[in-house]
Design goal:
Blueprint lengths: L6 E7 L3 E8 L8 E8 L2 H13 L4 E5 L5 H8 L4 E5 L13 H13 L11 H33 L14 H11 L6 H7 L8 H7 L6 H32 L3 H8 L6 H11 L9 H8 L6 E3 L2 E4 L7 H14 L6 H13 L1 H22 L3 H13 L4
Helix pairs in contact: 1-2, 4-8, 4-10, 9-10, 10-12, 11-14, 12-14, 13-14
């Protein structure tokens, strides 16, 4: 195989230390010189690692994406070296040859001949936005779990509000829950003053639904859960405010993604956070779909297809696109909705959801690459079809 670098390095990353192996020598040499060293992952240790690599004029550095431990190493070296980050699954060492030094040597060997597959690492701004959107997802899930606990507390106390109120955490629901916590005497007038819109016509049913065996224990548990719910809601609001500040830097990409059927501002923020706005990172839309884990599996042997199961890919992006599918399929008459129901009739709802998520991602890739909104792209495509053939 061709040697790509006269001097390259492999780094085996751990929490407290990194092991560095440098291979250097002529491109024609099959047995390059080897230099080994170990450094702490403190700032002082990583600066010493930087100086060690500079001493041997290293051109490229390969490392594996070990949890979040690779990030300080990347931050220290990214300005002065070509860095290659690879998934551990793509660079498994030879069986029986498992030590830190041998791992670093193996990574350096793969880097030297160009067999270390690169992972997508966005710039610092996109990385920060990615952390914010992922944090928002976790907080929303925690808030939803707390809402489910509130439902269980109410049912345990014989309170049947959820039968008549769709969103128990809305303004009307919160007012009624506060009446329960405060032990306020429940009268039709009090309930009528606490609810809004169409619920005012359901006062008798609500009064009956609030008649349970809600004890002091239930009040305590409900108060605790409401405080936790409010805490998560406050944190989500803070995150969304900060996310919007980052999105101001990407007004055009947000406009493009928001124009796609089924997508909104939250979906746009997740897509930008996960794949960035520079589509040159992915050679084709197919490469992006494969990276996201939305391509059908390709497992064939002796002319028989064994499985088309998709791989894990990027779970944050995949989940967000599947939620966009649920919104897109409700837009009756749109091509995307028609395609969903066409696939659903043949292969079921799960495969239809993944197929449409795949298509939405490919559309997003094309629009971001060509800097066109969905409507502009459709009009351009239509005009191309209507052109007379010379």
């Amino acid at each position: 195989m061709d040697v790509l670098y006269q001097s390259c390095a492999g780094i085996d990353v751990h929490q407290a230390t990194v092991v560095v192996c440098i291979l250097h020598g002529p491109l024609t040499s099959t047995r390059p010189k080897r230099e080994m060293a170990q450094f702490d992952t403190t700032t002082k240790g990583l600066k010493a690692c930087h100086d060690f690599l500079s001493q041997f004029h290293v051109e490229a550095v390969g490392m594996e994406s070990t949890g979040v431990y690779w990030r300080p190493v990347w931050h220290e070296l990214c300005d002065d070296f070509e860095l290659i980050l690879a998934q551990p699954a793509h660079m498994k060492a030879i069986p029986g040859q498992k030590t830190d030094k041998k791992d670093a040597h193996w990574i350096a060997q793969l880097t030297r001949i160009g067999l270390l597959p690169r992972s997508f690492v966005p710039d610092e701004t996109i990385q920060e936005l990615r952390e914010l959107t992922r944090q928002r997802k976790h907080y929303v899930e925690s808030r939803n779990r707390e809402t489910n606990r509130i439902h269980k507390i109410l049912q345990s106390g014989g309170i049947k509000l959820t039968t008549y109120i769709e969103d128990i955490m809305g303004a009307s629901g919160r007012n009624l829950l506060q009446l329960l916590i405060d032990e306020t005497p429940l009268t039709p007038r009090m309930i009528h003053q606490s609810v809004y819109t169409s619920l005012k016509r359901k006062v008798p049913q609500l009064l009956e639904a609030l008649d349970g065996y809600f004890s002091a224990h239930h009040r305590f548990m409900l108060g605790q859960s409401l405080e936790i719910y409010d805490f998560y809601q406050k944190q989500i609001d803070c995150l969304e405010e900060r996310i919007n500040g980052y999105l101001n830097l990407y007004e055009r990409p947000v406009e493009i993604l928001d124009s796609i059927p089924g997508m909104d501002l939250i979906t746009a923020s997740v897509i930008i956070a996960e794949i960035g706005v520079d589509m040159s990172q992915f050679p084709t839309a197919g490469h992006l779909a494969s990276w996201a884990g939305l391509c059908p599996g390709n497992n064939e042997s002796a002319g028989k297809k064994r499985s088309t199961k998709i791989r894990h890919g990027n779970s944050y992006l995949k989940r967000c696109l599947c939620q966009a599918v649920f919104a897109a399929k409700k837009q009756k008459g749109s091509p995307l909705a028609e395609r969903y129901y066409q696939i659903q009739s043949r292969r079921g709802p799960q495969k239809a959801t993944i197929a449409l998520a795949h298509q939405l991602l490919k559309i997003a890739y094309i629009l971001l690459k060509e800097n066109l909104t969905y409507q502009e792209f459709v009009l351009q495509k239509k005009a191309t079809r209507d052109e007379p053939v010379a």
